[in-house]
Amino acid sequence: MLKLSYGTAGFDEGMRALYERPAFPPEAETAAASIIAGVRERGDAALVEYAAKFDRAQLTPADFILPLSEAKKIADRLPAADKKAIRQALAQVQTFAKLTKPRNWMMTIRRGVKAGEKFTPMERVGVYIPGGTAPLVSTVIHTAGIAKAAGVKEIVAITPPGNTHPAVMYAMLQAGVTEICRLGGVYGVAALALGTQTLRKVEKICGPGNAYVTAAKKLLYGEVGIDLVAGPSEILIVADHTANPVFVAADLLSQAEHGSGLEQAVLVTTAPDLIPAVEAELNRQRNTLKRQETIDKVLANGVFLIQVPDRDIAAEIAGNYAPEHLEIHTEHPEDMARNIKAAGAIFLGQWTPEPAGDFCAGPSHVLPTAGSAKKFNGLETVSFFRRTSMVKYTEAALKREAEIIARFGAMEMLDAHGRSGTIRVKPE
To answer: Residue 55's pLDDT is what?
Structure first.
C-alpha cells in the first residue's frame, strides 16, 4: 500500500504513479497484431491452430459454434435460486436500457427547415465474455442483455472453449444470445471482426477482456465497431469523517480480487483517522477471502491511501484520475458528485456498493478505465444503434440559404457544391 498526504514530500511523485496507468502494455499490442494477421491470412486454419495453442482445445471449424440446444442442456443444471437471480438482474438491467433507448425525432429548427435523428438497431453484434478464473455471468447480462433490449437481431457471444459454466449458458439464453462462438481471446475477437470461411462478421464487438483482447479491439477498430478500450479494473473512493472503514475496505477489496493483479484501489479522504482504520480492515478482511494471491499483488502495488485537506481537492484528484468506478462516502454525496469532472460510474452513499453496479443496479458495468473516462463513455443502449441525421428543406427555405451554399462552395473551391444549391433557385 502507498500512503500519501497532500503537500508532503513524495506526494506529486506518488500521484504520477497513480495517474499514469496504461490500459495494456506495449507487448500485448505486438502479440495481438501477430495473431490478427494470422486470422486475416489463414482464416479457419489459424483459428484451429490458436485454439490448440492458447486454450488447449482441439477444434475443427464445425466445432466453432456451440448449438443452443447444447447450451440449454448445460443451463438446465443450474440451481433454481441462481436462475432466479439471473432473471431478476437481467430484468433490471434491461429496464434501464429501455429507459435510455434513443428516440427518433424530427422538428422545425427554423422556418422551412426540418431536422432530426433516426436511430436504427445494429443487426449483428459480438459480445466478448471472458473465461479466465471465474464465470462472468454478469458480463453476459451487461452486454448481450442490453443489445437485446436495443433490438439487435443477431447477438454472437464470443467466449473461450470450455467456458460452459451452467450460469453463463443460462444467462446467454435468457439475454437473447443467438449464437455462441467457442473461440477465445485475440483470435476469437479477430474472427468475428474479420470473418472467416465459417464465421460471418459482426458490426460491433463489446465487452471486457484481458490486456491482449483490449489491444486487439484497438487494432481492429475501423474493421469493426468497438465499445471502448478498457484495462484492469479500478475503484476510487472519496470519503469523509462519516465513512464506515469496514465498508470502504470491503469495496476496495472487491476490485482487487479481479484476477490480473494490475487492478487499482484508491481511497481519497479528508479524515486522517480513516486511513489507519481502513488499512487495518483491509488486512483483516483479506484473510477471509479466497483469492488472496491476487489480492496481495494489488495490496502491495495497487492500493493508494491518500489524505487531503478538503473536499475540493478530493474532487479534483478524483476527476483527474477519472476512475472506472467512483464511490462517494460523504455526508452529502450528491453535492460531491456535481464537482466530479470524469468517472465511468458514480455510486452515491455508503449503501451503494460498486458490486451492485457490477451485477444488478441497471447501467452496464462495461466502463472506461485507465483515465479514459475523460474521453469515452461506458457501454450504453445507444452503443447498439446507428444514428442517422435527417434534414428537409422547403423551396422557400432553400432560396433563403442558397447564397450561403454558393459562398461556401466558392471559398472551398468546390463549384459543383455551390451549383447544387443555386441551380434549384436560379436555373442556368
So the answer is: 93
- In angstroms, rounded to a whole number, what is the distance separating the alpha carbons of residues 195 and 289? 42
- With vertex at residue 97, the alpha carbon angle to CA 91 and CA 101, rounded to the nearest 5 degrees, is 145
Decide if 325 is catalytic. yes
DSSP per-residue string spanning 265-285: EEEEES-TTHHHHHHHHHHHH
CA distance 68 to 142: 20
Neighbours of 170 (CB within 10 A): 23
Quote the cell numbers at residue 102.
Answer: 434513443
Which one is catalytic: 325, 329, 354, 365? 325
How many whole angstroms separate alpha carbon 192 and alpha carbon 17?
A: 36
- pTM for the full predicted model: 0.92
pLDDT, tens digit (0-9, with 9 covering 90-100), for 205-254: 999 888 899 999 999 999 999 998 888 889 999 999 999 999 999 999 99
SS3 state at 49: helix
The candidate with the shortest Cα–Cα distance to 35, out of 215, 263, 264, is: 215
Contact in structure between 363 and 215 (CB atoms under 8 Å): no
Q: Using 50 as the pLDDT threshold, list the residues of the chain that sit under it.
A: none
Q: What is the DSSP string of 394-406?
A: -HHHHHHHHHHHH
Return phi, psi of residue 357, to 5°: -70, -35
Separation between Cα atoms, residue 243 and residue 237, nearest integer Å? 10
b/e sequence 294-313, b meaning 16+ C-beta within 10 Å: bbebbbeebbbbbbbeebee
Q: What pLDDT score does 349 carry?
A: 96
| Residues 65, 82 contacting (CB under 8 angstroms) | no
Catalytic residue among 324, 327, 354, 380: 324
pLDDT at 20: 83
Is 203 one of the catalytic residues? Answer: no
